[in-house]
Amino acid sequence: MARAGLSILLILLVWQGAALAVAGPTLPGPATVAAAMLREAASGQLWLHLGVTLARVAAAFTLALSIGTAIGIVMGRSPLLDGVLGPWLTLALNVPALVVIVLSYLWFGLTEAAAIAAVAVNKVPNVVVQVRAGARALDPALSRVAAAYRFTRMDRLRHLLLPHLSPYLFAAARNGLSLVWKIVLVVELLGRGNGVGFKIHLAFQMFDVATLLAYALAFVLVAQVIEMALMAPLERRAGRWRDAHG
Fold first, then answer.
1. Regarding predicted confidence, which is higher, 49 or 178?
2. Residue 88's closest CA among 134, 128, 131?
3. How far is CA 219 from the centre of its chain?
4. Cα 1 to chain center, whole Å?
5. What is the number of alpha carbons within 13 Å of residue 58 lying toward its C-beta?
6. pLDDT value of position 192
7. DSSP label at 60?
């Protein structure tokens, strides 16, 4: 914690020094940005738009993780399906996120469903890659033990596959969350009338760098809180069985 505090202090000092060197509106100092953040929070705008963005992130993240995990498990456990779907996966991984977003809006309109779907589609291939790697790495001996004890498919999933995949799932979730955050901002900037991305776009149009940085910083802080308060504790809890048998 002490090192983290010193690191944050160093960032603020460097930021303040750069702001003093620039001495212009293009790079406001930490105090100016903090004042803009407090102003937006007091007006209720910050909480409103952060809430909207969080809802989109949660919906797209859940959709992408669920679909990507299912496809990744199937591809990892079935060489036939892996061979069939492999070229599609490569194609999906290399399509730019911006193209998917624009096509989604063109095909389905500037709707909430189109926005969330565009974000989820961009993330699904990354989840598939990581989960497929985990499914491939499953020890065949464990499968033979499960067969010997006549595990049902649900038992195999609950007691064998999911515990084995937990490190891969958390890696996919952590990487996915960071990617979804960023894509949601682009989606909001291009075609939504609310959210953090929308407010950043408005601040850009008004050349209001302080407000732009205030929303960006608030966005980063929320992501850090989710990581420390939710993702990290869940990962430690899921990994207890490994520690107990390590």
1. 49
2. 128
3. 12
4. 24
5. 8
6. 85
7. H
Angle at 187 between CA 183 and CA 188, to 5 degrees: 115
Rounded to whole angstroms, the Cα distance separating 126 from 89 reads 9
Rounded Cα gap, residues 19 and 43, in angstroms: 26
Instruction: Return the structure tokens found at 234.
Output: 């869940």
The one-letter code for the residue type at 194 is N
For the full predicted model, state whether its pTM sits above 0.70.
yes
Tokens of 178: 């960071």
How distant, in Å, are the alpha carbons of 7, 9, 67, 214 from that of 3? 6, 10, 39, 25
- DSSP state, 149? T
On the question of pLDDT at 40 being above 90, the answer is: yes
The whole-angstrom separation of Cα 71 and Cα 131 is 8
Residue 63 has a CB neighbour count (10 Å cut-off) of: 18
Q: At what angle do helices 30-43 and 209-226 cross, to 10 degrees?
A: 80
Q: Report which of 241, 233, 199 is spatially closest to residue 36, judged by C-alpha positions.
A: 199
Quote the pLDDT of residue 56: 92
Task: Report H helices in 149-208.
Answer: 153-155, 162-191, 196-205
So what's the pLDDT on residue 146? 63
> Is it the case that residue 34 has pLDDT exceeding 90?
yes
State the residue for tokens 């309109």.
109
Residue closest to 172 by CA, chosen among 132, 119, 224:
132
Tokens of 20: 């003093």
Residue range 149-198, pLDDT digits in tens:
566 667 666 667 677 777 788 888 877 777 888 899 999 998 888 999 99
What band does 213 get if pLDDT is binned at 50, 70 and 90? very high
